[in-house]
Specification:
By secondary structure, the chain is α/β, with parallel strands linked by helices. The chain has a single domain, classed as Mannitol-specific EII, Chain A, CATH 3.40.930. The protein is built from 6 helices and 6 strands; from the N terminus they run αβααβββββααα. Strands 1, 2, 3, 4, 5 and 6 form a 6-stranded mixed beta sheet that branches. It is globular.
Length: 157
């Protein structure tokens, strides 16, 4: 499933203005909840439980908060850019500037892992991270994701 299919333009925060990790999760979870009809508290709780297992700050300025929800009937995603960066307990100690949050149904474990792998593969590329950080609108952000997927994610035909 291509990443742009998971996230709508109104699920992107191009300039996240928060003071910490929990507040970032709250803001991005609220954005995802507003689009899916899920409770923002429920999404936040899933993300916080996952963070207890280990930080989803993966390094290079990237955080991929994610989890599985019993109540979800489809995968949902929201993205944000924090121009100043936030401490997200990444192994490399670098602040996170790019956030890709996704929640999938509990029964979709294979798809969950595949999407996580694709997001990770894309965000390993500095050119992709740079284009996403420089996006000034949700449409620019999605265009950058589509360009990155075309360049870095093999299609299965």
């Amino acid at each position: 499933m291509p990443t742009p299919d998971l996230v709508a333009p109104n699920a992107i925060i191009p300039a996240l203005k928060v003071n910490g990790k929990k507040q970032a999760l709250q803001e991005i979870a609220a954005k995802a909840a507003a689009l899916t009809g899920q409770s923002d508290r429920a999404i936040l709780e899933i993300l916080l439980q996952r963070e207890k297992l280990g930080s989803t700050g993966v390094g290079n300025g990237v955080a991929i908060p994610h989890g599985k929800a019993r109540s979800a009937d489809h995968m949902m995603a929201a993205c944000a850019v924090s121009p100043e960066g936030l401490d997200f307990d990444a192994e490399d100690g670098q602040p996170a500037t790019l956030f890709v949050l996704f929640v999938s149904p509990e029964h979709a474990a294979t798809l969950h892992v595949k999407v996580l792998a694709n997001i990770s593969r894309l965000l390993k590329e500095e050119s992709v991270r740079k284009s996403l950080r420089e996006a000034r609108s949700p449409e620019d952000f999605l265009a950058a994701v589509q360009n990155a997927e075309a360049a870095f994610i093999p299609t299965s035909s």
